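To make this tangible, this section ends with a sequence with its C-alpha cells:
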Amino acid sequence: MSLGTRLKNLRRANKLTQKEVATRLEIDNTTISKWEADIYEPNADTLDKLATLYDTTVDHLLGRTTLSDLHESLKRSAQLMKEDPALKEQSADSDTTVGRAFFGGADKYTEEEIEVARAAARAAIEAMRKARKQKE
C-alpha cells in the first residue's frame, strides 16, 4: 500500500475532509490531494504532524510497521513481563523522564502508559537478545 493510500485511509477513518486536514496543517488543500494521489510526498516535519493528527506513527505512515505489529509486540511484552518479574522491576526502577520520544510527545501519555511502552521496549530487546543467542 502506498503512502498516499495510507494517508487517504487514515483521513477517512478519522472522518476528516481534505480541506479539514489542510486547515489543521495550515497548508493548501490541493497539497493533501496530491499526497493522496502519490504525486507528492510530505516532508519529514509534515509526516510527524500527520502522524500526530491521525494518532499513529511515522513508521506506520511510511509502511514500515502496521498497527497489528505494535499490538502483537505489546502482547508479547506483557507476556514476557509476567514470565520474568525482573523486567517489570527494571521498568519500575528506571527514571520516568528518560527516553520520552513517544508518538507525538510524552506529555500525551500517563505514567502508566509510558511504563507499558518502556516495558514493551525492554521486553522486545530481551526477546531479540534471546533469539540471537539461540541462533549462535
Notes: The two ends are 36 Å apart (CA to CA).
